[in-house]
Structure formats: structure tokens, C-alpha cells
Structure to design on (152 residues):
């Protein structure tokens, strides 16, 4: 049953990601060709780029209250999906670079990896994004472990 549920939420996550595409049919054709598809940031979410291993540690610190996180194992980078109305919440966090609206992120499908890119945290279809305050706390000085109440 857990496998069926995981497959269902993965498909729901992929369906959600497709709603964020400019041309969903083009994205599906790109994925069918085993290539990465382009998604512009801004209308649906913004991206915070961070080193991969600290991102894995941050996921553990934050707990279950995170949105999608995409990783590139060859470049050692992770991309965190944040709310599109993000202000300057992460400007003082050294290891995190917030990409501007209109920046292009190339993504694999949610259901499989492509060219070394895979989902550390898959979109679940809910549209949930990572709270920048929680991300900043996880990457800030000492990488504070967040309480269970803070991550809800």
C-alpha cells in the first residue's frame, strides 16, 4: 500500500509541476525524450540555490514542513522551491542564493531522474513550498535544529 501511495503522490506532484510550465505538452515531450525541461521562476515559485550536502542536512533540520527540493549530483547543488512573493528573507544567508523571477530551472520529471538531477523532496501535488524563515534558520549560523512546533 505504501508503494501505491508513494506512486500516487509522485504523480500528483508531477501533475502540479506541469501546471507551473508555460507549455505543459512541450515539457512532457521533453521528458519523454529523457531531457530536462525548462521552468521559469516567478509566477508559481522562486528558487533558492544552495550546496547539496548542506541542503541534505537542512532537510533533516527542518523536518517534514518543506516543499520540493531538486538536486544535481554532478554539480553538487540543490534548488529549494520558495513562495513567489519572497522578499529579502534570505539575503544574509551566505550559502543560499535566491534566483530572480524569470530565472530558468531545468527539471526532470517527478517520477524519475535525468542527467544527474533528482528530487531530494518531490512535489506532492499540494503546492506546498518551503518557508524561507525555516530555510534561513537551517542554513544560518550553527544550522539551528528547529523545534517540532516551528516546522509546522
Amino acid at each position: 500500500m505504501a508503494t501505491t501511495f508513494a506512486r500516487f503522490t509522485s504523480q500528483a506532484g508531477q501533475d502540479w509541476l506541469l501546471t507551473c510550465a508555460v507549455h505543459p505538452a512541450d515539457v512532457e515531450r521533453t521528458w519523454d525524450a529523457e531531457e530536462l525541461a525548462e521552468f521559469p521562476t516567478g509566477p508559481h515559485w522562486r528558487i533558492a540555490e544552495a550546496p547539496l550536502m548542506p541542503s541534505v542536512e537542512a532537510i533533516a533540520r527542518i523536518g517534514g514542513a518543506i516543499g520540493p527540493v531538486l538536486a544535481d549530483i554532478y554539480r553538487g547543488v540543490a534548488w529549494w522551491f520558495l513562495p513567489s512573493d519572497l522578499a529579502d528573507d534570505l539575503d544574509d544567508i551566505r550559502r543560499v542564493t535566491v534566483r530572480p523571477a524569470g530565472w530558468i530551472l531545468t527539471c526532470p520529471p517527478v517520477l524519475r531522474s535525468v542527467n544527474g538531477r533528482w528530487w531530494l523532496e518531490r512535489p506532492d501535488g499540494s503546492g506546498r513550498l518551503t518557508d524561507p524563515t525555516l530555510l534561513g534558520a537551517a542554513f544560518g549560523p550553527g544550522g539551528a535544529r528547529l523545534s517540532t512546533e516551528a516546522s509546522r
The radius of gyration is 15 Å. The beta strands are 37-40, 46-51, 69-72, 77-82, 97-99, 104-107, 117-121.
